[in-house]
Amino acid sequence: MQTTREAASEEDVSPPGFPSPGVRTLLTFLLFFHFFAIFAGIAGNFGARSGLRRQLRASPGVQPYLHTLGLDTGYGYGLISNTADDWDHLCQIVINPPASFDPVNEDGEDLHRIDLIPEGTKRWGMQKRRYLTLAGWLAAVQGEDNEEAALVSAIAGGMLRRAQIASGAHRFLLLAQRTQDMISLEEMDPEFRDPNHPSWFDTLYNADLILDEDRWSPSTRGGQGEMTQSRGTRRRDR
User: Fold this and answer.
1) CA 124 to CA 220: how far, in whole Å?
2) 97 touches 106 (CB < 8 A)
3) Whole-angstrom distance, CA of residue 68 vs CA of residue 84
4) Partners of 89 in the β-ladder
5) Measured distance CA(174)–CA(167) in Å, rounded
6) pLDDT in tens, 207-238
7) How would you classify the pairing of strands 112-115 and 88-95?
8) In the beta sheet, which residues pair with residue 2?
């Protein structure tokens, strides 16, 4: 009996440099919770959401933990091929532009513009991702007259209501933000280092907004033909 107790006590003693059994138990629990939270986040954001998937995401502490790590987002993204379908799409309204306004050949820095994504939106937050997804849907149906017009009308109406604009003649733009070239900053002109520089955007959709009773209706001026570059030419000479 004494020999058995001595053997048990020797097993309870941690080797030099190892944490105590209590600390190891805590670390094991934290690792289990971490992997469980990631599994619940993926299960709750990928594909159709069942009741079980929603319950997993609703487990105590899971959502705050994922949000803290920036993992509380969708995982159903395709591979990036650096084509227009992969780029972020942005909706923008130019307020009361002059009749000669051309979104491709002029910057229009002095014009008043409002964006679909409100100022102050978190850079990596779910809200921004939803706005980008909405603009992506517009890019997907662009050219389908019925769906395109209805979606533009809904998006433009929401943007103008938020800006408290109820009259005027405006221009609605759908922009595609191209990725930057894989070159060092030293090889790039300083003005192009800003990913929000106007030259990084292609105009995919360009329409006048006409107020028809209580609804903003788009009147298309041009589409993909007004892009600053053709889809087959993705790099620029510097």
Assistant:
1) 32
2) no
3) 31
4) 176
5) 21
6) 999 888 888 989 887 554 443 333 333 333 33
7) antiparallel
8) none
Amino acid identity of 185?
A: L
The DSSP bridge pattern shows strands 215-222 and 112-115 to be unpaired
Among candidates 49, 94, 105, 99, which has minimal Cα distance to 74? Answer: 49
Q: Report d(CA 179, CA 190) in Å as an integer.
A: 16
Residues near 226 by beta carbon (within 8 Å), at least 6 away in sequence: 103, 104, 203, 206
Distance, CA of 40 to CA of 24 (rounded, Å): 24
Cα separation, 44 vs 206, in Å, equals: 37
Mind listing the pLDDT tens digit for each residue in 1-59? 455 555 445 455 667 777 888 888 999 999 999 998 888 877 776 655 567 777 777 78
Q: Which amino acid is at 101?
A: F
